[in-house]
Write a structure and sequence with these properties.
- With about 210 residues, the chain is of the alpha+beta class.
- It has one domain: Immunoglobulin-like.
- It is built from one helix and eleven strands, in the order H-E-E-E-E-E-E-E-E-E-E-E.
């Protein structure tokens, strides 16, 4: 069906609709065009926690972690907001630059926690701004806190993940990027304040008030 000058009154809405459909399709395609790397990178301090996937989008890097509780006791992991001394951050190896946590999915944020019974597994995702394809470490907490935490506290550190060496192993994602369930509007540098004792250790958590 052609659009002549006498029918322009209905051709214009149809043309606008066609443009909107085209743009929505291009947007969905762009969202799905992220690169995914599957790996099995254990934490140096807690090998039962591993990085299983790294996804790179146009604007962010999404790191998937999995923890399996192989103990006989419940485990109570939790995330800390950027700005807290126990928060996750990415440390670039060559520049020493830090990238602080921007969003998360699948793990409770302090003061809440995600109980993991013995034998169970929890999977969660950490979102950061996109970084260069280079070597980095995913760190939890300030190094100065290592000696001051309660006995049995476990830090999840993943050292020397070299994206440049694994660049050829990235594959095109077959799905849109995951959506976070917790977003921080402005990642901050760690503050000096120290809040009450965290819960990520093998024990029964105190009663919640």
């Amino acid at each position: 069906m052609s659009c002549d000058s006498g029918r322009s009154w209905w051709c214009r809405p149809l043309a606008c609709l066609a443009v909107l459909i085209l743009l929505s399709g291009l947007t969905a395609k762009a969202e799905a065009e992220s690169q995914v790397l599957h790996l099995n990178w254990p934490s140096q301090r807690a090998p039962d926690t591993v990085v299983t996937e790294i996804e790179m989008t146009e604007t962010q890097i999404i790191i998937t972690l999995q923890f399996r509780n192989r103990s006989l006791w419940p485990f109570h992991p939790q995330l800390f907001s950027p700005g807290h001394p126990l928060s996750f951050y990415i440390l670039e190896k060559t520049t020493g630059k830090r990238h602080y946590l921007a969003a998360s999915q699948g793990l409770a944020v302090y003061p809440d926690y995600s109980p993991v019974p013995p034998g169970r597994t929890i999977t969660f995702k950490l979102f950061f701004k996109k970084i260069p394809l280079a070597s980095f470490s995913l760190m939890e907490g300030e190094p100065s806190l290592r000696s001051s935490m309660p006995p049995g506290y476990i830090f999840w550190d993943f050292l020397n993940i070299d994206l440049a060496k694994m660049e050829n192993n990235f594959k095109q994602a077959d799905r849109p990027p995951p959506k976070p369930d917790h977003v921080w509007s402005r990642p901050e540098t760690p503050s000096a304040q120290k809040e009450k004792e965290p819960l990520k250790y093998f024990d029964n958590p105190p009663d919640k008030k």
